[in-house]
Design goal:
The chain has three helices and no strands. It is mainly alpha-helical. It has one domain: Helix Hairpins (Orthogonal Bundle), CATH 1.10.287.
Amino acid sequence: MSPLLFAAIIFTMTCYALAMGLTLLRLLRGPSAQDRVLAMDLICTIAMLMLLVLAIRYRSAMYFEAALLIAIFGFVSSAAMAKFLLRGEVIE
């Protein structure tokens, strides 16, 4: 692996870790339930992006599959939470 790619991966992972920390702060201190749902969705997205960067780093397809699963579960959970906040029930 080239030193430039290694440095870019380290920088990217550091930025993602910082973003996840700030989002976790919003999740814990969010004034409303909508802020917390949005923070959880963003944490899922950042986790997926971190796995994709690790897949590039380690050249493994397993990380891509895990990122796909996180994306699917993140979307479904966000849709369920949004529906619960709008109507008060998930299953009609």
